[in-house]
Write a structure and sequence with these properties.
Elements lengths: L1 E4 L2 E2 L1 H12 L4 E9 L15 E6 L2 E6 L2 E8 L5 E3 L1 E6 L4 E6 L6 E3 L5 E8 L8 E3 L11 H23 L1
Organism: Grimontia kaedaensis
Protein name: Phage tail protein
Length: about 170
């Protein structure tokens, strides 16, 4: 799933961003929080309303002067509707929050890993002032088990056909 999010920047996050830029540094997004809360977020928010858990960023890159592309993988056994997302800085400050007041962004099944890709638009921040700290995960390897299962099923189907045909 890939969605362009225009989140609400928080006062706490903007202050942390200001502090970092005053020191000549970039603020670093390190985690994404997922939760079940559905509301219209405001700038005074310091946490998600109903956070289920936080995830490290699997991979991320700058997609423009005010846009970041982030990927997170939820491989837990939690089951919930993702209706709120928080973007956390290295110091734990909530930089920005997005909530789907109606509907949901995704459903996390306890038996299936959820891969979320976000194009995060941060137009209310100085250009190139935020960087992404990721785990460096190679997301291409996530598809290997599924491809192996498909190949096995295909080979078994062909084998059954040949056994039936030759009998």
């Amino acid at each position: 799933m890939s969605t362009v999010l225009v989140p609400t920047l928080t006062e706490t996050g903007l202050q942390a961003l200001f502090n970092a830029t005053q020191d000549g540094l970039d603020a670093k997004i390190t985690q994404v929080g997922l939760g079940e809360g559905a509301y219209a977020p405001d700038q005074t928010r310091t946490a998600l309303e109903s956070e289920v858990h936080r995830l490290p960023i699997a991979s991320g890159k700058r997609a423009g002067t005010h846009q970041l592309h982030l990927n997170v993988i939820d491989d837990t056994d939690h089951a919930f509707w993702v209706r709120e997302v928080g973007f956390y800085l290295e110091d734990g400050s909530l930089l920005a929050v997005y909530s789907a007041s109606e509907g949901a962004l995704a459903y996390k099944s306890p038996t299936i890993d959820l891969l979320l890709a976000f194009d995060l638009s941060l137009n209310g921040t100085p250009a190139d002032s935020i960087t992404v700290v990721d785990t460096g995960a190679d997301l291409n390897i996530l598809f290997a088990p599924e491809l192996a299962r498909l190949a096995t099923a295909s080979i078994n189907t062909m084998r059954r056909y040949l056994v039936h045909r030759l009998a």
